[in-house]
Design a protein that fits this description.
The protein has one domain: Ribonuclease iii, N-terminal Endonuclease Domain, Chain A. The two termini are about 30 Å apart. The mean pLDDT is about 90. The protein has about 150 residues and is mainly α. It has helices at about 5-15, 30-50, 55-65, 70-80, 85-95, 105-125, 130-140. The protein is globular and about 40 Å long. Helix 2 (about 30-50) crosses helix 3 (about 55-65), helix 2 (about 30-50) crosses helix 5 (about 85-95) and helix 4 (about 70-80) crosses helix 7 (about 130-140).
């Protein structure tokens, strides 16, 4: 496990001990569930650090990056740069069968976003926050988005 931000999961597991499961056995939707929170925290942190504005304005800015459409564009640019292991996790998430798809997202974008979130969740649970941050930053840059 990494020091600093990567140590967050160590701190959580130390204070809330329990049976640890091999992260490779988690369902893709469980990985996407935690990956969504990790990605949202990264984006919200950057948005807040860039400007002290009312919460409604912060939310509107963050939504541009956390939507399924934005995440689909981000991950599409990242695909050539992912390792085989990362691609396998992404594909598991993309090929999952979510129970619902939001009305504001196309099924294709939603599944790509789910794959992206599953990858982030997988890396987070392994304590690989440096790689999570690298992928998020690189993906935003490749998508031509500005934070």
């Amino acid at each position: 496990m990494e020091e600093g931000i990567g140590g967050l999961i160590d701190g959580i597991l130390e204070r809330f001990p329990g049976k640890r499961q091999d992260v490779r056995t988690y369902s893709p939707l469980a990985l996407a569930y935690i990956g969504d929170a990790v990605y949202d925290l990264i984006i919200r942190t950057v948005v807040v650090e860039r400007a002290n504005r009312p919460a409604a304005q912060l939310h509107r800015t963050a939504v541009h990056f956390v939507s399924a459409q934005a995440q689909a564009v981000i991950v599409q640019g990242l695909l050539p740069e992912l390792t085989e292991e990362e691609l396998a996790v992404y594909r598991r998430g993309r090929n999952s069968k979510p129970h619902t798809i939001p009305k504001n997202a196309s099924p294709g974008d939603y599944l790509k976003a789910t794959g992206f979130e599953a990858l982030l969740g997988y890396l987070y649970l392994q304590g690989r926050m440096d790689r999570v941050l690298e992928l998020v930053k690189r993906g935003i840059d490749l998508a031509g988005l500005t934070l």
